[in-house]
Amino acid sequence: MKKLIYALMMPFAGHLKHLQKAILQVRFYKYYKRKLQWKNPKSFYDKIIWMSCNADTSLWTWLADKYKVREYVSARCGENLLTKLYGVYNMASEINYEKLPDSFVMKTNNGCASNFLVRDKKNIDTNAINKQFDKWMKYPYGDLTGQLHYSAIKPKIIVEELLVNKSNPTASLVDYKFYCFNGVPLYCHVLSDRKFNTHDVNKMMYDIDWVAHPEFLTRYDNMKELPRPSCFEEMKLIASKLSQNINFVRVDLYEVNGKVYFGEMTFMPGTDCDYSEATCLKFGQLFDEKQLISADEMRKKIGLEE
Predict the structure, then answer these.
(1) Residue 170 pLDDT level (bands cut at 50, 70, 90)
(2) Model pLDDT for residues 28-76, shown as the tens digit of each residue
(3) Is the pTM of this model over 0.90?
(4) How far apart are CA 4 and CA 7, in angstroms?
(5) Are 53 and 25 in contact (CB under 8 A)?
(6) Cα 113 from chain centroid?
(7) Neighbouring residues of 133: CB distance < 8 A, sequence distance ≥ 6
(8) What angle do CA 141, 156, 122 make, to 5 degrees?
(9) What is the DSSP annotation of 275-301?
(10) Which run of H or E residues covers position 71?
(11) Rounded to an integer, what distance in angstroms lies between the CA atom of residue 196 and that of residue 192?
(12) Which residues contact 305 (CB under 8 A, 6 or more apart)?
């Protein structure tokens, strides 16, 4: 249904940025069945959405860019946290597959669920892949979802190292999503057994001591508790470093073969995360939506003046 709705909206994508508030209201109402609080917002999504429409979100655009964020991560935590980068392209026709390793992951830098995993390039149809990425590169994800900070990202295709757990090579990676408020990671939303390029996944919320909080979520049919990761303390330190001076950001990390890798940074978690209203109110009380830092201010703080 979501794909059908977006397909119907595509011809009007160039005008949708002027309907940002309406689009965000519709997406929010689908899951929470109420109107957004535009005046004096208190709950989590009310604050996040208020910021997206009323504040300087240049930092969001910089750090949500899956390519440009690498510069920030390297400055804050070092390059060791990053996967190997094999190439960056403005269009699919630029990719020389012969020069790429046998396995890799391809993704766009400005959207969601626009990834392609290659486990053995001898078994891929490069023409079909290129056609798919040509579509993804033109897909106005930011305009269609009301997340205009994505619309400001110049589309690119990036090719990176494919991370594989040696103990279970074909399984999806466990995604550790740290909810960080004013530089402090307080909760971790853990996703496992994800069906590729979908939101079909098992979930569980943990506090910073790895105590499970299923009551934070509204759906119980897709919950799964996992053992505490061996690198959990290191991941908390990394999440703290990456979220310094930011009132709210979700920092996504992976633990693969005993090593931590950076995933992405998200400023507007989807309203389909299954958080209860009580959880949203709790999260909303943890930060001030009006205390935002711009991309220029952040670059100066970490010594990356252009």
Answers:
(1) confident
(2) 999 999 999 999 999 999 999 999 999 999 999 999 999 999 999 999 9
(3) yes
(4) 5
(5) no
(6) 10
(7) 92, 106, 108, 114, 116, 157
(8) 110
(9) B-HHHHHHHHTT--TT----HHHHHHH
(10) helix 69-77
(11) 11
(12) 299
